[in-house]
Write a structure and sequence with these properties.
It is a single chain. The radius of gyration is 15 Å and the shape is elongated. The chain has one domain: Orthogonal Bundle (Helix Hairpins). About 85% of the residues lie in helices and about 0% in strands. The chain contains three helices and no strands.
Length: about 70
C-alpha cells in the first residue's frame, strides 16, 4: 500500500502536493491540540501523519530537483 500511496504523491503536481502537505501539517497540529485539551484515542496517528508528511516532502524535493535540472539543460 505504501508503494501505491507514493505513486499517488508522484502523480500530483507540485502545487497540489504542497497543498496536501499543508493539510497534513494542519491535521497534525489539530491532533496535537486535541492531545493537550482532551484524550486522543489513537496515538499512533502522530507517527502515521509525520511519516506521510515526510513522504510528501521527499516527493516534493524530487520534483523540484527534477524541474530545476530541466531548466539548466
Amino acid at each position: 500500500m505504501k508503494h501505491n500511496f507514493a505513486q499517488v504523491l508522484r502523480d500530483m503536481k507540485i502545487e497540489e502536493l504542497q497543498k496536501h502537505i499543508d493539510e497534513l501539517r494542519q491535521a497534525l497540529f489539530s491532533l496535537r491540540l486535541n492531545l493537550v485539551t482532551s484524550h486522543v484515542k489513537d496515538v499512533s496517528q502522530f507517527k502515521k501523519l509525520r511519516r506521510t508528511i515526510a513522504r510528501g516532502l521527499t516527493v516534493l524535493g524530487e520534483k523540484q530537483n527534477a524541474s530545476s535540472s530541466e531548466r539548466v539543460q
